[in-house]
Write a structure and sequence with these properties.
Radius of gyration: 17 Å
Distance between the termini: 14 Å
Strand content: under 5%
Mean pLDDT: 86
Number of helices: 4
Shape: elongated
Structural class: mainly alpha
Low-confidence stretches: none
């Protein structure tokens, strides 16, 4: 079934707003881990992004994507596996991006923050598309 462009645009805007809140949680945890605990940015990003992604998926599943209630645990598990792969890729990119940013900001929290800002837009688009698909894919007769 084709979905009108307006519906997808509205849903993306809602997902982006929700993800913005998730991103604030993510960035806050990242900066605290880097600045206060001395954790490497790429390691801190693994933890912070995982927490935020779980929260955003659980809220967006029903509130934005009108996801099926059947199989939520399986859907969340699948989404978290996808998220882990994406977070590992983004975290891998954090090291060179942080080093690049440090040439402008100096080393530390500011450089990690700039790197986080650079990896966010492609992650947002991928997360929207994958979370929408995972929420709506039929798993059996219960999904209709």
């Amino acid at each position: 079934m084709l979905v009108p462009r307006e519906v997808i645009s509205r849903d993306f805007a809602r997902f982006a707003a929700l993800s913005g809140g998730g991103w604030l949680l993510d960035a806050g945890l990242l900066l605290a881990l880097v600045g206060l605990a001395g954790v490497a940015p790429q390691i801190a990003n693994l933890f912070s992004a995982s927490c935020a992604a779980t929260l955003v998926y659980l809220v967006s599943h029903r509130r934005i994507h009108s996801g099926a209630s059947h199989g939520l645990q399986f859907r969340l598990g699948f989404y978290l596996i996808y998220t882990a792969a994406l977070i590992f890729a983004a975290s891998w990119a954090m090291a060179p991006l942080t080093a690049l940013a440090a040439t402008f900001t100096g080393p530390g929290v500011a450089a990690a923050f700039v790197a986080k800002c650079l990896v966010t837009p492609p992650q947002l688009l991928c997360n929207f598309l994958v979370s929408r698909a995972v929420a709506r894919v039929p798993l059996g007769r219960s999904d209709g």
